[in-house]
Amino acid sequence: MIEASEPPRAADSDPATQAQGLRILIVDEHPSVRAAIRHAVAARDLRVVAEVGSAEAAGRAALETEPDVVLLENELDDADGHRLVRSLRKLLPHAAIVLFAMSFAEQDIVDGMRAGAAGFLELGIGAQALQRAVRGTVRGDLAMSGDWARRVVRFMTNRDGLGPTAAGGPGLTSRELEVLRLLADGLTARQIAASLGISTRTAEGHVAQILRRLGARNRAEAVRRYVEGA
Protein backbone atom coordinates (compact mmCIF):
# COMPACT_ATOMS: atom_id res chain seq x y z
CA MET A 1 0.00 0.00 0.00
CA ILE A 2 1.25 3.50 -0.78
CA GLU A 3 1.64 5.39 2.48
CA ALA A 4 0.21 8.85 3.02
CA SER A 5 3.71 10.34 2.98
CA GLU A 6 4.45 9.06 -0.53
CA PRO A 7 3.86 11.25 -3.58
CA PRO A 8 1.21 10.09 -6.07
CA ARG A 9 2.38 7.74 -8.77
CA ALA A 10 2.15 9.61 -12.03
CA ALA A 11 0.76 7.39 -14.75
CA ASP A 12 2.09 9.53 -17.58
CA SER A 13 4.68 12.26 -17.26
CA ASP A 14 4.26 13.73 -20.75
CA PRO A 15 2.15 16.92 -20.40
CA ALA A 16 1.06 16.77 -24.02
CA THR A 17 -0.14 13.20 -23.59
CA GLN A 18 -1.87 13.96 -20.27
CA ALA A 19 -3.89 16.70 -21.97
CA GLN A 20 -5.64 14.12 -24.16
CA GLY A 21 -8.94 12.65 -22.98
CA LEU A 22 -10.51 12.47 -19.54
CA ARG A 23 -8.06 12.56 -16.64
CA ILE A 24 -8.58 9.88 -13.98
CA LEU A 25 -7.28 9.59 -10.42
CA ILE A 26 -7.41 6.13 -8.80
CA VAL A 27 -7.50 5.88 -5.00
CA ASP A 28 -7.18 2.42 -3.44
CA GLU A 29 -5.01 0.92 -0.70
CA HIS A 30 -4.02 -2.14 -2.72
CA PRO A 31 -1.53 -1.83 -5.60
CA SER A 32 -2.99 -4.89 -7.32
CA VAL A 33 -6.47 -3.32 -7.33
CA ARG A 34 -5.12 -0.04 -8.64
CA ALA A 35 -3.30 -1.91 -11.40
CA ALA A 36 -6.45 -3.83 -12.36
CA ILE A 37 -8.51 -0.64 -12.53
CA ARG A 38 -5.79 1.15 -14.50
CA HIS A 39 -5.76 -1.70 -17.00
CA ALA A 40 -9.56 -1.86 -17.25
CA VAL A 41 -10.01 1.85 -17.78
CA ALA A 42 -7.31 2.17 -20.45
CA ALA A 43 -8.75 3.73 -23.61
CA ARG A 44 -7.76 6.42 -26.09
CA ASP A 45 -10.06 8.97 -24.47
CA LEU A 46 -9.36 7.95 -20.84
CA ARG A 47 -6.04 8.51 -19.11
CA VAL A 48 -4.99 7.68 -15.55
CA VAL A 49 -2.93 10.66 -14.37
CA ALA A 50 -2.18 9.37 -10.85
CA GLU A 51 -2.93 6.55 -8.43
CA VAL A 52 -2.54 6.69 -4.64
CA GLY A 53 -3.29 4.55 -1.61
CA SER A 54 -4.63 6.89 1.09
CA ALA A 55 -7.02 9.78 1.70
CA GLU A 56 -4.19 12.17 2.50
CA ALA A 57 -2.36 11.31 -0.70
CA ALA A 58 -5.64 11.60 -2.63
CA GLY A 59 -6.01 15.22 -1.57
CA ARG A 60 -2.52 16.07 -2.76
CA ALA A 61 -2.96 14.19 -6.03
CA ALA A 62 -6.29 15.91 -6.65
CA LEU A 63 -4.66 19.33 -6.42
CA GLU A 64 -1.62 18.33 -8.46
CA THR A 65 -3.39 16.55 -11.33
CA GLU A 66 -6.90 18.12 -11.37
CA PRO A 67 -8.63 14.95 -12.62
CA ASP A 68 -11.99 14.87 -14.34
CA VAL A 69 -12.92 11.61 -12.59
CA VAL A 70 -11.84 10.10 -9.27
CA LEU A 71 -12.28 6.35 -8.81
CA LEU A 72 -12.29 6.00 -5.03
CA GLU A 73 -12.25 2.97 -2.74
CA ASN A 74 -15.25 3.17 -0.42
CA GLU A 75 -13.38 2.26 2.78
CA LEU A 76 -9.82 3.46 3.13
CA ASP A 77 -7.89 2.99 6.36
CA ASP A 78 -7.77 6.74 6.95
CA ALA A 79 -11.23 7.80 5.72
CA ASP A 80 -14.75 6.60 4.99
CA GLY A 81 -15.78 6.95 1.38
CA HIS A 82 -18.55 9.51 1.82
CA ARG A 83 -16.38 11.73 4.05
CA LEU A 84 -13.60 11.72 1.50
CA VAL A 85 -16.11 12.44 -1.26
CA ARG A 86 -17.11 15.63 0.59
CA SER A 87 -13.48 16.66 0.99
CA LEU A 88 -12.58 15.96 -2.62
CA ARG A 89 -15.61 17.81 -3.92
CA LYS A 90 -14.37 20.93 -2.16
CA LEU A 91 -11.04 20.53 -3.95
CA LEU A 92 -12.54 19.38 -7.25
CA PRO A 93 -16.03 20.89 -7.55
CA HIS A 94 -16.35 19.93 -11.21
CA ALA A 95 -14.95 16.39 -11.00
CA ALA A 96 -17.05 13.23 -10.93
CA ILE A 97 -16.20 11.09 -7.89
CA VAL A 98 -17.13 7.42 -8.17
CA LEU A 99 -16.99 5.04 -5.20
CA PHE A 100 -16.17 1.38 -5.69
CA ALA A 101 -16.16 -1.65 -3.39
CA MET A 102 -16.60 -5.41 -3.36
CA SER A 103 -20.15 -4.66 -2.26
CA PHE A 104 -22.11 -1.77 -0.77
CA ALA A 105 -24.56 -1.49 2.08
CA GLU A 106 -27.60 0.57 1.15
CA GLN A 107 -26.67 3.18 3.77
CA ASP A 108 -23.24 3.53 2.14
CA ILE A 109 -24.91 4.52 -1.11
CA VAL A 110 -27.31 6.92 0.60
CA ASP A 111 -24.41 8.60 2.43
CA GLY A 112 -22.35 8.68 -0.74
CA MET A 113 -25.13 10.22 -2.81
CA ARG A 114 -25.73 12.89 -0.22
CA ALA A 115 -22.01 13.65 -0.17
CA GLY A 116 -22.07 14.15 -3.94
CA ALA A 117 -20.76 10.85 -5.32
CA ALA A 118 -21.38 10.39 -9.04
CA GLY A 119 -21.57 6.62 -8.95
CA PHE A 120 -21.17 3.31 -7.15
CA LEU A 121 -19.40 0.46 -8.89
CA GLU A 122 -18.55 -3.02 -7.70
CA LEU A 123 -15.06 -4.41 -8.16
CA GLY A 124 -15.04 -6.91 -10.98
CA ILE A 125 -17.06 -4.72 -13.34
CA GLY A 126 -15.99 -5.36 -16.93
CA ALA A 127 -13.64 -3.00 -18.72
CA GLN A 128 -16.22 -1.79 -21.23
CA ALA A 129 -18.83 -1.21 -18.52
CA LEU A 130 -16.30 0.69 -16.42
CA GLN A 131 -15.29 2.88 -19.34
CA ARG A 132 -18.93 3.63 -20.18
CA ALA A 133 -19.59 4.51 -16.54
CA VAL A 134 -16.61 6.87 -16.38
CA ARG A 135 -17.64 8.66 -19.56
CA GLY A 136 -21.24 8.88 -18.38
CA THR A 137 -20.41 10.49 -15.03
CA VAL A 138 -18.69 13.36 -16.80
CA ARG A 139 -21.96 13.96 -18.68
CA GLY A 140 -23.81 14.00 -15.36
CA ASP A 141 -25.09 10.40 -15.41
CA LEU A 142 -25.28 8.34 -12.23
CA ALA A 143 -23.05 5.26 -12.46
CA MET A 144 -25.08 2.62 -10.64
CA SER A 145 -26.76 -0.62 -11.62
CA GLY A 146 -30.54 -0.92 -11.74
CA ASP A 147 -30.36 -3.48 -8.95
CA TRP A 148 -28.73 -0.98 -6.62
CA ALA A 149 -31.21 1.72 -7.61
CA ARG A 150 -34.06 -0.60 -6.64
CA ARG A 151 -32.46 -1.61 -3.36
CA VAL A 152 -31.72 1.97 -2.34
CA VAL A 153 -35.25 3.22 -2.99
CA ARG A 154 -36.73 0.29 -1.08
CA PHE A 155 -34.25 0.86 1.74
CA MET A 156 -35.17 4.53 2.00
CA THR A 157 -38.91 3.97 1.98
CA ASN A 158 -38.77 1.04 4.41
CA ARG A 159 -36.41 2.87 6.75
CA ASP A 160 -38.63 5.93 6.88
CA GLY A 161 -41.82 3.90 7.24
CA LEU A 162 -43.26 5.08 3.94
CA GLY A 163 -46.06 2.64 3.26
CA PRO A 164 -48.34 2.69 0.21
CA THR A 165 -50.34 5.65 1.52
CA ALA A 166 -47.43 7.77 2.77
CA ALA A 167 -46.00 10.87 1.16
CA GLY A 168 -42.90 10.09 -0.85
CA GLY A 169 -40.17 12.49 0.09
CA PRO A 170 -39.39 15.59 -1.99
CA GLY A 171 -42.80 16.51 -3.39
CA LEU A 172 -43.94 13.04 -4.48
CA THR A 173 -47.46 11.78 -3.92
CA SER A 174 -48.06 8.30 -2.54
CA ARG A 175 -48.89 7.03 -6.05
CA GLU A 176 -45.74 8.60 -7.48
CA LEU A 177 -43.72 6.90 -4.76
CA GLU A 178 -45.19 3.55 -5.82
CA VAL A 179 -44.24 4.30 -9.42
CA LEU A 180 -40.73 5.36 -8.41
CA ARG A 181 -40.24 2.06 -6.57
CA LEU A 182 -41.24 0.14 -9.69
CA LEU A 183 -39.20 2.45 -11.91
CA ALA A 184 -36.15 1.74 -9.76
CA ASP A 185 -36.90 -1.97 -10.15
CA GLY A 186 -36.26 -1.49 -13.87
CA LEU A 187 -39.89 -1.80 -15.00
CA THR A 188 -41.09 -0.05 -18.15
CA ALA A 189 -44.14 2.19 -18.14
CA ARG A 190 -46.20 -0.66 -19.61
CA GLN A 191 -45.04 -3.04 -16.85
CA ILE A 192 -45.70 -0.41 -14.19
CA ALA A 193 -49.21 0.02 -15.56
CA ALA A 194 -49.86 -3.73 -15.38
CA SER A 195 -48.49 -3.92 -11.83
CA LEU A 196 -50.66 -1.06 -10.56
CA GLY A 197 -53.75 -1.79 -12.64
CA ILE A 198 -53.65 1.53 -14.48
CA SER A 199 -53.34 2.46 -18.14
CA THR A 200 -49.97 2.76 -19.83
CA ARG A 201 -50.74 6.41 -20.61
CA THR A 202 -51.38 7.07 -16.91
CA ALA A 203 -48.16 5.30 -15.94
CA GLU A 204 -46.22 7.33 -18.48
CA GLY A 205 -47.76 10.47 -17.02
CA HIS A 206 -46.66 9.48 -13.52
CA VAL A 207 -43.11 8.79 -14.73
CA ALA A 208 -42.95 12.15 -16.49
CA GLN A 209 -44.28 13.90 -13.39
CA ILE A 210 -41.74 12.16 -11.15
CA LEU A 211 -38.89 13.24 -13.41
CA ARG A 212 -40.23 16.79 -13.47
CA ARG A 213 -40.74 17.02 -9.71
CA LEU A 214 -37.27 15.66 -9.01
CA GLY A 215 -35.56 17.61 -11.79
CA ALA A 216 -34.25 14.35 -13.24
CA ARG A 217 -33.58 13.26 -16.81
CA ASN A 218 -33.80 9.51 -16.35
CA ARG A 219 -34.48 6.64 -13.98
CA ALA A 220 -31.07 6.63 -12.27
CA GLU A 221 -31.03 10.38 -11.77
CA ALA A 222 -34.54 10.25 -10.31
CA VAL A 223 -33.28 7.80 -7.69
CA ARG A 224 -30.38 10.11 -6.85
CA ARG A 225 -32.61 13.18 -6.55
CA TYR A 226 -35.04 11.27 -4.38
CA VAL A 227 -32.32 10.07 -2.01
CA GLU A 228 -30.72 13.52 -1.80
CA GLY A 229 -34.04 15.17 -0.98
CA ALA A 230 -35.65 12.54 1.27
Task: Kindly describe this structure.
- Helix content is 51%, strand content 15%.
- The protein has 230 residues and is of the alpha/beta class.
- The chain has a six-stranded mixed beta sheet, with helices on both faces. A two-stranded antiparallel sheet has the order 5-6.
- It is elongated and about 55 Å long.
In this structure, how is the largest beta sheet organized? 6 strands, mixed
Task: Compute the CA-based radius of gyration.
Answer: 19 Å
- Spans of at least 5 consecutive residues with low confidence: 1-19, 161-168
In terms of DSSP E residues, the strand content is: 5-15%
Number of strands: 8
Quick tags:
230 residues; alpha/beta; Rossmann fold; Arc Repressor Mutant, subunit A; 2 domains; six-stranded mixed beta sheet; two-stranded antiparallel sheet; 8 strands; elongated; disordered N terminus
Short description:
By secondary structure, the protein is α/β, with parallel strands linked by helices. The protein has helices spanning 15-18, 31-41, 55-65, 81-91, 106-115, 127-138, 146-159, 174-184, 189-196, 200-214, 219-229; strands at 9-10, 22-27, 46-52, 69-73, 75-76, 79-80, 96-101, 119-122.
